[in-house]
Amino acid sequence: MSDSADVPLAQCWARSMLHLLARMADRPTAPIGAHPLVDAAERDRILHHLNPYRVPGIGYRTLAGPFEEQVERTPDAVALVTENGDTISYRELNERANRLAHHLRGHGAGTGTRIGICIERGIPQIVAMYAAVKTGAAYVPLDAELPDGRLAYMLDDSAPRHVLTDAACRRRIPDGAWQVLDVATDRARWDACPATNPVVDGDADRLLHLLYTSGTTGRPKGVATVTAAALANIFWMQRQYPYQEGDRAVCKTSPGFDVSIWEVFWPLYHGARLVICRPGGHRDPRHLARLLEEHRVSMIFLVPTMLAPLLQAISGERAAALRWVVSGGESMAPWVRDAFPAALPASTLVNAFGPTEAGPVTDNVIPRGSSGPTVPVGRPAPNFRITILDGDLDLVPVGMAGEAYVSGEIGLAHGYWRAPARTAERFVADPYGPPGSRMYRTGDLCRYRDDGLLEHLGRIDRQVKIRGLRIEPGEIESVLAGHPSVGDCAVIAHGDPVRLLAFVAPAGRHGGTDLDPAALREHAAALLPEHMLPDRILPVGRIPATVNGKTDEDELIRLWQEAADRERSLVAPTDDLEATLVEIYGRVLNVSPVSVHDTFVQLGGHSLLAFQLLDECEAQLHAKPEVTALLTDTLRNVAASIRVAQAGGRR
Known about the structure:
The chain is of the alpha/beta class. Among the domains are: 60-78 and 88-203, Rossmann fold (3-Layer(aba) Sandwich), CATH 3.40.50.980; 472-566, ANL, C-terminal domain (GMP Synthetase, Chain A, domain 3), CATH 3.30.300.30; 576-648, ACP-like (Non-ribosomal Peptide Synthetase Peptidyl Carrier Protein, Chain A). The protein has 19 helices and 26 strands. α9 (285-294) crosses α10, α16 (576-589) runs antiparallel to α17 (607-621) and α16 packs across α19 (635-648).
């Protein structure tokens, strides 16, 4: 190998091959697959030296315990601040959460029950989250931006005893067996309850919350996470990149994602101030940059696709207080790593990895000047072991790719809510751990480097991540197949940036052209969140298959490219304004060709890229289209709206 960095890996491979040849010589009649590639020394290295850390259990019963101790230390310090300047102290937050928790406990909430939370991001939402964990119940985050059908399914599946909501979200909660409480208008019910900390029975192995993620069956699956695991992860991260009293953190993530735990609870264990990003503000990198600068935020969690535009929008000088930027949820492109030091010279970049079923299980503090074709995700966290296995659950040598399995004494989720078969498929017996131990099958293709760092190389199944959000194409296929006009369908992820392409074949004997993509998209939008909606729905006569009966993705891509070429070839720009927009769309969205009849969404655009495109329009055309028009109108109609803006002198 020409690169000297590959020499240690080459040596590992050579040792494995020599070991294999020796085993084959000892047992010449055995099938080659019966011979392990890993010798005893390599096995010991993988199981004990690459995964060395164990820490004792955390002595708290709920996520509220460490916070309650901090309240005693800094009762009058500001705990929460909104962008509007509203604040609440540590004592006030604790007392409000305690009163609500006592009320809920008096009406049946506690260990073994669930509490739904559907509240717009703000102080009341965080009060509700703290109150829920103080009852000992598990909470179920219900994002008001989700379609009605998905929210209804999550409520029916989780069967909460109570649902906490507010005026902005109340209409989204259907009637059911749950009691609905408005945290504003119903507050008088619990204002007279005790302000003391509730005493919760049991231990930290209780269910913490249900996080619903995309599932292959057409329905989201609820990951049943554990309180002890969240506490252990928080205390590990505090040792890695600590918060201090007086630091500032930012709350910008929906409670439906595991990152919200680290944003909402961890900073308040250590006397930091939590700055609450306004609803929708987390999607605009310019707004987020201003928030970090003005509030002197110390740490932030971001997916790489959000970090990239933030690096362009932020001022390293004004964001000098930002010590740590933790990125995860999807693979980081090397150019993002390379651009980071110049954009944020006072900050340290951390690349992390971990499925919802286990939380963050690795981290890599990236040294300045790092290079290479991939960005490693680091080393295993305490209480976790990550093994790279082949299809027979045998260890693969260092340097060889395989599926990553995560095991841990307290780190794994209980499984999937009310889905024992699905749980048994993904949470399997750990042949390398003590009797009765489990490991989680991630579906991630990984390998260990010789220096012990883990590299994430992709997926071994169909799951994809777009903007850090987990997507199972099978769930989209199931929803589309539920429309009466669809007989068969296939969804693939294609391109860079990744686009979701849906191909639909008709039911019965009708031709594919009889299918209405707009009607199918409307049908899907009633059941799927925005990030799971296909960028393009293409009717076809039938779904092509390979000789072994699998969907022929290469043929589907060819059909999509043919259709795109037919639509675009005849519709060129007619003036300089349209030509400029064609150039901007193509550059921002990384597509070619671009037709004036294309829409931003059809070309693969999403809310994050929309802000970049708006900036480009303002810089080159001195006018910006309305965001809603950009997302729904053709390029030609967007050009027309810009002409109106230019004529009226609007910016």
